[in-house]
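User: Thanks for the earlier help. One more: Cytochrome P450. Can you show the sequence and predicted structure together?

Assistant: Of course, both are below.
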Amino acid sequence: MREWINTIPNDGIIRFTTVFNQERLILTSPEALSDALVTHNYDWDKPEQMKKGLGRIVGQGVLLASGNVHKTQRKCLLPAFSFRHIKTLYPIFWEKSCEMVEAITKATANADNTNAETSISITDWLRRATLDIIGLAGFGQDFDALGKPHSELSNIYEKVFDQPQNENVMKAIETLENIFPVAWLGSLPLQHNRDVKKASMAIRQAARMVICSQEQFKTETTSSILSGNSLLSIASRSGYFTEDNLIDQVMTFLAAGHETPLVGHWWSYADNPLSRRDCGMRSDLNYPLQVKAHRSSILDSLPYLHAVCNEVLRFYPPVPLTRRVCVRDTTIQGERVPKGTNILIVPAALNVSKKLWGEDALEFNPDRWMGSGKNNGGTSSNFANMTFLHGPRSCIGASFAKAEFACLLASIVGRLKFKFSDPDYKSEVSSAGVTARLKHELLLTVEVVEGW
């Protein structure tokens, strides 16, 4: 679709048909996107197949809620994701980032002692770090995935949230969803379905125990950040959510908070040139890792770091495509759109549209974010950057994801240098699942930066 948006003439909408001649509309202009995401936002909803499929795991949290229920849930959760509150979470982001880098450094030293080539799976380390971060920031519990990578909780989590990576299987499932109800597919006696159901119940039970013992956590934890300041604590103080509602929000935090910000990191190392970008970011960093540089003011004053983060999120949006279905007759760009119409919002294509970004839209270029007046990357419309969507259903955790990304990337490039273990490695995107992933494991050879 990246090719379509730049080669097919259109006035804001590209129409095509899929299997069984089902119509799809791709929105390509700021005007069309504004109509669907802002002006007539609640005329559109996630497809029932998606809601039932994801609902098996995350329940009916803010991600899947509709209409007035969504409005109320989002209103009650907004304080937990406010700009001011995210600033208070920087110590968690930074300290877990440093813990990850220290663990990688020790693993490197151990490998050197045995005269082994030091290759690490950066995706594995980042997965563990972000799981720990969402545990602490989300509901005040350290999962210690960095210290205990094969703990029972980590294993259960992977069974629930790690999506299948076989593209043929995923395409077959998507085709079957157009014929059979998702609930029926989910009840098939498959090992994957059994594993997901069992593991999901285990995580929900753990979340219930955390909620029930909230007061105990407040008195026993050593830091207020880990107790009364977690996303769960703030949500519970709203007084709106029942215990089951809170568990649904916990599952949503885990699904989105652990997976979504992770994907951009994969490509920040899978895309050459590594050395220039790392050196540019490293020159921003004038303090050693041992310094607890967790104050947001320090990390927010690193222009090239944030330029790279912004460009990674633009060029490689974690969720490359999202689908909406019209729940009542509405309009887009003044044209009538009947109930039941399906639209596709494709950040992976919109974010590289030459109409919106200029002729260099398909180039990975952090410099587009550098300099006065470049906070938007040089584009003239907010709807040119659709990584976190816009409007009432935009990603509520966007600020959380961006801050976490900056801390992880700063800690990594400040202490470590990388090169590809396979010099011929090329990134290929898997089309399996909701979030974008690399088809092949990204193995990197590590070198510790002297002086840090």
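User: Great, one quick takeaway?

Assistant: The chain is about 50% helix and 10% strand.
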